[in-house]
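Q: What structure does this chain adopt?
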Amino acid sequence: MVIQISNKTARRIFLAKQGLSAPPSRALGKPDLLQLICDLGFVQVDSISTVERAHNQILFSRNQTFRRDHLRQLLEEDRALFEHWTHDAAIVPTAFYPYWKHRFARQEESLRKRWAKWRGEGFDKVFDETYARFADGGACLAREVKQADHKSGGWWQWHPSKTALEFLWHTGKLAISARRNFQKIYDLSERVIPADQLAAEVSHDEFVEWACRSALQRLGFATHGEIAAFWDLVSPQEAKAWVADNRRQLEEIEIECAGTAKPRASFGFSGLPPKLQDWPEPPARVRVLSPFDPLLRDRNRAERLFGFRYRIEVFVPEHKREYGYYVFPLLEGDRMIGRIDMKADRRAGTLNVTRLWLEPKIRASAGRMARLDAELVRLARFTGVSEIVYADGWNNST
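A:
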């Protein structure tokens, strides 16, 4: 029997799985922060800080008592978290490190061949020399292994040591030990990753089982393609085989999509509560999400669930942008209600709001605008600025 789940219930399920249904003002200690990240699976890292770094904003949007220093301690002192790759650079619980060793192995052969072809024969020597630099000299910044006479440029102009550094990190031989002004400090993995996780081994079957099961747990419902894409650790074929092998534990689910889109056939674990009242109602407040928030990472899934089409336009030429360089999505309760363009000017101590776009049929009511203003006050305080400055004509919805 196929279980029918309404669109509103599906949104509630996904919001709960993404940590956006819990009270955002509850006290969040360091152990709670670690648990939150474990529940999410990972938190994406990005260098853009138009208002706030992506990882900080992702966590703050879920709990306004989040402290940046707790995250730093978990990464750099407790070593309960490490930085590596999912679909992009991310902060990941170190308890998951043994499974990442399978990613390292898969990357080893493909990257070595690809980058050796790019750089020419004899490039393995640069890998070995770069590794020896860390083995003999200890942790250092990427720029400290750069050749003195090399000019900076795009990836095609990487100096050989930069290429080797990326290879050694992607294949698990180096790890990010800390950051200084957001610049990565690398060291040998055995000096960064706790010995028990570093030594732990899991079989290929255990790896696939964990990757697929843990992905579906965090998604609530998914296709085999969505299961594979969650961690980007296994292939769609491996996820499809896992679904087939575990059919007794899974139920077929039909998800009602937003708008006129056809229902989406998915899978969920047996016993997934199918009724709206089975899932917590998200807080009614407005929240500004990071463009890299995991709720929206899968753009197509977000569009099906919320009827909200969102794309980052950082790499879109300015004259072709629909909204702006780095526009923030707005969540209210269980609905995506719009997007806002703003930037923090820390020297001036201001949060400069340039433009607001509300979604069709979303009114700029007095209550909604008051909730948005309250969220901007919270975000400004977290960002470290004291005043919100609205540009003339900023509200495009009035």
